[in-house]
Amino acid sequence: MTERTTLSARTRLAEAETHLRRAREELDGGDDALLALVDETLRDVATLRDMLEAERAEARWADDPQALTQ
């Protein structure tokens, strides 16, 4: 994945997380099943973000193996 694609994906994940958090706030005290779905989706977004960050770190390391020691 190119740096530009990764940045675009990270931006979209951040936007999705923002919308999900707003939905979570609006649903607070509402339908438990819907709240659980929003919470699960928020966890999925966080997992995807972490995966992108790990991939980005691996790509940097592949380009510059000394980067890990800096």
Keywords:
70 residues, 0% strand, mainly alpha
How many helical stretches?
A: 2
- Main sheet makeup: none
Alpha-carbon Rg, integer:
16 Å
Please identify the structural class as seen in this structure: mainly alpha
> Approximately how much beta-strand content do the residues carry?
under 5%
State the share of residues found in helices, binned by percent: over 70%
List the secondary-structure elements in sequence, H or E: HH
Low-confidence stretches: none
| Intertermini distance | 24 Å
Summarize model confidence as the mean pLDDT. 85
Please summarize what this structure is.
81% of the residues lie in helices and 0% in strands. The protein is built from 2 helices and no strands.
Overview of the structural elements:
- This protein is mostly helical.
- It contains two helices and no strands.
- Helix 1 (3-27) runs antiparallel to helix 2.
- The longest helix has 32 residues, at 32-63.
- The mean pLDDT is 85.
Please describe the topology of this protein.
Blueprint: H1 3-27, H2 32-63
Helix pairs in contact: 1-2
